[in-house]
Amino acid sequence: MGTISAKKIQDALSQAQNLGLVEEPCTINGCSLVLRSLRPDEYAAALTDCKDIDNQVEYLNEFQRAHITRSIVEVNGVDLREADFIEVEEEVKNPQTGQMEPKLIKLERAAYLKKYVIKSWGRESVYTAYRKFNDAEKRADEEAKKNIQFYTPEETAEDKVRRLIVELKEVEEEIPEQLLNQLLDEYGYMRKSTAEEVKAAMERLDQEARDKETAAKAAAAPPAGQPQTPVQQAAPTPQGPPAVDLSQRQPLNRRPVQIPPDPHVVAQQAAQQIRDQVQVAQGGRAPQPAVADPSVLKKAQEIAALEGEAGTGLDIPPAPGSAQTPTHLPGPGGQNIPVVNLNSGVAELVTKGQDRIDPKALRLDQPPTGGINPKYRPQQR
Fold first, then answer.
1. Is residue 57 part of a domain?
2. Exposed e or buried b for every residue in 195-216, given b needs 16+ CB within 10 A?
């Protein structure tokens, strides 16, 4: 087998030593820093530093400091790229004399930066430097894919999710449960829950809702010993057309109720018409036509015709200047209609075989007596 000396390929190997590492300069509160992406062994060492921390806040702070101390390669122009260890003078207790004496010791670069540099930083500065470290990782990923051509297609969204889930499950045991739940909750995720846990959570939510409802009712109820007053409701704001009283509406498809005319009014109107006809027959001035309801006139004609058929008539004395005034006038259908004596204020009914009725003996202030007219004869058809 052939052998080659490393000196011949030293230049080529020097370019491959830091392959995939990207540096990102930044300035935080006046301090100039240069951070770079980490190697795989440095990621593992950073997780080891905070593995035994149970407190959630302390774990998060130590997690960020462990990555920052391993990513710093330059501080205010001092190059730390080739330095794996840093000598520092510390006070060490002499076991023989029992006194503190200065002594040079070697510390790893990450341990030195954590003890003498990062330890005095504020929480905001540590968080800002950690964000810049994430930028260096992102640039390293982009640079690694920039000049490489893949003949196989890049992983799909499903493949990427599966890969990230596997990686998450691998590091899940290394992160405290409280921190893991907080990180998942920040991105809207949650760990798998059993049916009993979901049922218990639903019962708690129902109980809280009932408690709130009970508290609201208790707050709305008046205090003990105070009479309850009716709640005064504010007048509603008028909106739209006013409400219609349905009791006043006429039902659909029903004829309006017609009130029958008063018989006394009908008789008076008929008597007035007869007076007008007699006045015209005696040569007097024709009366002005009165506007009357056609139904009332028809009813008056029917009453007059019935009285004519019954053989009744009115005693009309002769008018001045005339020999005799007829007691009947021709009506519709050849019937005789009795007329009213114009000289008398009260019409006198004259029947066959009966005496006249004294109008003064009549009680006109009383309602008419009910019953059937014995002189009424139905119309022959």
1. yes
2. eeeeeeeeeeeeeeeeeeeeee
**Is residue 211 situated within a structural domain?**
no
Asked if pLDDT for residue 356 goes beyond 50, the answer is: yes
**Which residue in the block uniquely carries the two structure tokens 């029992």?**
98
Domain end, chosen from 147, 168, 198, is at: 147
- Can you read off the two tokens belonging to residue 332? 């519709």
**Phi, psi of 47, rounded to the nearest 5 degrees:** -70, -30
Contact between 93 and 105 under an 8 Å Cβ cutoff? The reply is no
Average confidence score pLDDT of the chain: 75
Greater confidence (340 vs 194) lies with 194
Strand 349-350 and strand 85-93: the pairing is: unpaired
Whether residue 371 is contained in a domain is answered as: no
Helix (H, G, I), strand (E, B) or coil at 108: strand
Helices (H), the chain: 10-17, 40-49, 56-71, 109-116, 123-146, 157-172, 177-186, 195-220, 263-281, 294-309
Q: Is residue 298 predicted with pLDDT exceeding 50?
A: yes
Distance CA 123, CA 121 (A): 7
Residue 147 has pLDDT above 70, yes or no: yes
- Among the residue ranges 53-62, 267-276, 341-350, 368-377, the one predicted with the least confidence is 341-350
Per the structure, the count of domains in the chain is 2
Q: Among 147, 168, 190, where does a domain finish?
A: 147
Is 29 inside a domain boundary?
yes
Task: State the Cα–Cα distance between residues 160 and 114, nearest whole angstrom.
Answer: 35
- Give yes or no for a contact between 244 and 238, defined as CB atoms under 8 angstroms apart: no
Q: How confident is the model at residue 150 (pLDDT cuts 50, 70, 90)?
A: confident
Residue 275 or 320, more confident: 275
The per-residue pLDDT for 350 is: 47
Q: Which of 104-118, 171-185, 273-287, 297-311 has the lowest mean pLDDT?
A: 297-311
Domain hosting 102: range is 15-147
What tokens were used for 28? 């935080």
Which of 309, 285, 284, 280 is CA-nearest to residue 376?
A: 309
**CATH no. for residue 106?**
3.30.2220
Q: Which amino acid is at 111?
A: A
